[in-house]
Design a protein that fits this description.
mainly alpha; single chain; 1 helix
């Protein structure tokens, strides 16, 4: 019983670590796309207005 509780606690902590790690990966992956999108929009805007 104690072992199960310990495992649960460990799993919980690992899950949190994985979650934060995953969030960081998602942010890192999405960042270039966001930059690219804003760059493209800016380019389009300057070609339209110019």
């Amino acid at each position: 019983m104690v072992l199960v509780l310990m495992l649960l606690v460990v799993f919980q902590e690992v899950e949190e670590e994985v979650y934060y790690f995953h969030m960081q990966i998602v942010i890192v992956i999405r960042m270039p796309f966001q930059l690219l999108k804003s760059y493209m929009l800016h380019q389009n805007w300057s070609t339209i207005s110019g």
